[in-house]
Amino acid sequence: MSKKLFFPIIAFVLWHVVGMATADEQTQVCLSTNHGNIVLMLDGEKAPKTVENFLRYVQDRHYDGTIFHRVMENFMIQGGGFTMNYKQKPTREPISNEADNGLENTRGTIAMARTSDPHSATAQFFINVVDNGFLDYKASTRGGWGYAVFGRVIKGMDVVDAIRVLPTGSAGPFAENAPKSPVAITTVTLGQCK
């Protein structure tokens, strides 16, 4: 094979391999709600376990028919764990906390919700509606782990902002911060919203 043909072939192959790696590391997800669509860009390079976990739930259609059950105007909106009638959905085993990945809980980022156990995140997530630096990783201690950011809103922040200001109160098992009119997550799919 001549050098004139060999190098263009190698360049073509490398271009496609690099392009595929980028597509895998930066995955778009469409979160459709009864208030509009939110497009997320997930960061599989900095949060590989978290993105893999989230995408498994997406592929299993776990999030379809869930709600944003916790809405706090100057904090975040949380969802992915309860149905429209506030029945908690079953989940897989918790994942390791990747909050030490350098990503910060700034406005428009998506992070995993969890209990006081730093490594207890399963399916629930939240979208930061303001900068929440106090949720960032500080140290590998129970109180310092923070909450793992794994992506950001790239389209539909106006939808997030519309949800964040909804009237809230008690509903289901929640004494406060539940939207008085349910915010349905109708479907969550890979790619751009249609």
Automatic annotation (TrEMBL):
Any one Gene Ontology BP term: protein folding
Record's function text: PPIases accelerate the folding of proteins. It catalyzes the cis-trans isomerization of proline imidic peptide bonds in oligopeptides.
Catalytic activity field: [protein]-peptidylproline (omega=180) = [protein]-peptidylproline (omega=0)
Species assigned in the record: Candidatus Kentrum sp. FW
UniProt enzyme class: isomerase
Superkingdom: Bacteria
Protein name (Swiss-Prot/TrEMBL): Peptidyl-prolyl cis-trans isomerase
PROSITE patterns named among the record's database cross-references: CSA_PPIASE_1 (PS00170), CSA_PPIASE_2 (PS50072)
Record-linked Pfam families: Pro_isomerase
Record keywords: Isomerase, Rotamase, Signal
Gene3D superfamilies xrefs: Cyclophilin-like
EC number, UniProt record: 5.2.1.8
All residue ranges annotated as the PPIase cyclophilin-type domain in the record: 32-190
Residues annotated as signal peptide: 1-23
Similarity-based family: Belongs to the cyclophilin-type PPIase family.
One GO MF term: peptidyl-prolyl cis-trans isomerase activity
Family matches, as SUPFAM superfamilies: Cyclophilin-like (SSF50891)
